[in-house]
Amino acid sequence: MTKQSARTSSVPFLLYLLGIIIGPFIAGCLLLIILVLLIFYYRRKREECFSYFGLQMGKCPCFTELIFFAFFLSFLASEKQQLQDTGTGQSQSEAQRPENQAKNRYRNVLPYDHARVQLTFRPTDPSSDYINASYMPGYEKEKEFIAAQGPLPGTLCDFWRLIWEQKITTLVMLTNCIENGQRKSERYWPLDYTPCTYGDITVSVVTETILPDWTIRDFSIKRVTNLSDLVHLIRHYHYTSWPDHGVPHVTSTILHFRDIVREHIEQHKNSGPALIHCSAGVGRTGTFIALDSLLRQACVQGEIGVFSFVQRLRMNRPLMIQTESQYVFLHQCLLDGIRPAPLKNWDKMEDSAVYENTLALQGYEVSHV
Q1: How far is it, in rounded angstroms, from Cα 51 to Cα 348?
Q2: Is the four-CA dihedral 332, 245, 296, 363 of positive or negative sign?
Q3: Fewest CB within 10 angstroms: 37, 73, 174, 358, which?
Q4: pLDDT above 80 (res 9)
Q5: Is residue 124 within 8 Å of residue 131, measured between CB atoms?
Q6: Which amino acids are annotated catalytic?
Q7: pLDDT category, 364, cuts 50, 70, 90?
């Protein structure tokens, strides 16, 4: 064999040896990268679990609980994704009319024609029957609630027309007027006990009780054009601790808030729908409506259908329960509402908040029978 042929034949052998050496090295690097990614994923899910379930860092559940939470969150994220297109494609022609566009707070939150609440038509104003509000199903009735956006400066009169015409006695507000420096809802009630007139409706504040997480007001309203002394009374429940696009830090306060709202609704069953609004009338509003309806279903039937009920909501109004965190929070509220967990160290602050609200509320109930 010549020297040239020997060198030629040795090249594949050297490549073979090089492959034996480099191959395991590359495989090891890939395994290391995968391991790092898994650790990162685990830590992120761990933080999400603490964030979603209100646990303090340092008071960690066991590893199997965290794994369960991680799979639980992934499952809910998958469900939420399946809801994305529910209801889309339905007609929104009334909301899209040029004369009505200024009445919408957000361009992507428009009521569907079939579910929109129509105000009394006024011949002098072709767009007088439009307001960004939708009838919503509850546990008992298809029009148990009205979901609405927070009023704009130009829709304050329409908002009070809605309340008067629909005979509403329960009004729930789930947003602050200003959040993070942005206007989320126009203030639609008087600053003090001096009556204000919106269009042809005069609104008076009868009582106001400020609690740690919500405020309760009683309004009386009457029509200026009405020759009779007919006065309509409304209870205004204003929850002030729910961040926009987010969720409250604990479930107990919103569960307690829901209970007192439900009690008032039950006391006024012959009235119109309960009016629920936040800023857009979809995220916090949808979560609250679903929470109330599903807790009632659990109480009566002993079972709940979260996914199917949210589908029903989204068939009536787009984007109901807007974010994944709100969808997860709804489930956690239902778990805590149906089967309250025993008090643990990380629940003490939460329990204290409920206690403060309860004491204040007892004083309110005694003085406002």
Answers
A1: 17
A2: positive
A3: 37
A4: no
A5: no
A6: 278
A7: very low
